[in-house]
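job 3f2a | input accepted
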Amino acid sequence: MEARVAACIGCHGKAGRGVANVYFPRLAGKPAGYLYHQLLAFRDGRRKYVPMNYLLAYLPDAYLYKMAQYFAAQDPGAFPQAAPAPSGQALEAGRRIATGGIPERGVPACASCHGDELAGREPGIPGLLGLRADYLSAQLGAWRYGVRTALAPDCMQLVAARLDEAEVAAVSAWLASRPVTRTRPTPRTGRALPLPCGGQDAPLPVPRP
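job 3f2a | predicted structure (209 res):
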């Protein structure tokens, strides 16, 4: 599999540990279920980036799942240092959204889905720390405008659509400023998510011997 995913290294780094480019995220150590459904989304056009759409166009589900399992099993290595803090006011606004949400608008806290340490949750929710603010903001914007979609019910599209641009910038900046305290997603628990989320509940391929 290492040879088969060699095409991924140029953008995502050796073993998927990430590169300096702000828009090519780390793959190593993320939940296999999350990575698998992102590969499906690129292949099926629900997530649009031409090189990824092209590379994955003819790959079957089982093959994509093996790719996801490979990257999920990799050691994520060192995470980038916390970004310099923006203005105190913006940082505080982002902290409030990430840790408390905006209840009056139906926006849950990021931590309620992505885990108390924001490291992600098995099988399908990624961590949010160790990512640059520009990348986080771009992904939230893609959900807001329908450029990025997930399996129904698309909980992130609902959440992102309820945030304005200033709130997207604030929460992205706060998340990017936080140190990484946990490098692996937390195991799945019985704790319910605040919103139905197709990506967390969708079935995964049955491994073959």
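job 3f2a | Residues 30 and 70 are 10 Å apart (CA to CA).
job 3f2a | closed
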